[in-house]
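Quarterly update from the structural biology core.
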Amino acid sequence: MNVIVFGATGSVGRLATAQMLDQGHRVTAFARRPERLDIDHSELRRVAGDAEDAAAVAAAIESQEAVVVALGAGMSRTGRVRSAGTLNVIHGMQRHGVRRLICQSTLGAHESWPNLNFFWKRIMFGALLRPVFKDHERQEDMVRASGLDWTIVRPGAFTDGPAGGTIREGFDPAEQGLRLKISRADVAAFLARQISDRRYAGQAVAVSS
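Predicted structure, tokenized:
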């Protein structure tokens, strides 16, 4: 399948790109500096562009069959690239008739808020990362209203290390006592799985280790 990844040079996007290539997909890596992607594969295509450039995003989406959004704002706590970029992606998909959208968000967004503990509710998302968190919620609102065949993936806090293989997924917002952490490799594997696995189509699914 032809798949494009927005945010392909990010810590999760890079791993997801590698996973999808290993699964036999033809992957387009869209990023401001795609040459930073340290993957050598015959089915990898690099496209340089800014996710906030609507024309560049739409042009890159043409001829794709699925889209993965793994956008991040780096160290910025006020950037709105997730919502702005995702809106451009949605418009590009609608323009070219591409249906399948997998979007990485965060655990705690909207109805998953009760899953979080005091630290994440009051200190991280309640204060330090509040603008980032709100941008994720705007991003999710756009995806839900898009009319596309979407899946929103809500991971806990990222950790380094290899994929553990066994994760908790699709748990209820009332679930308590979660670790609220998951390796980037596990998130990448889960994103890649959604290309062909439709069990979470039209859903926002929480994942944690």
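Residues 81-96 form the longest helix (16 residues).
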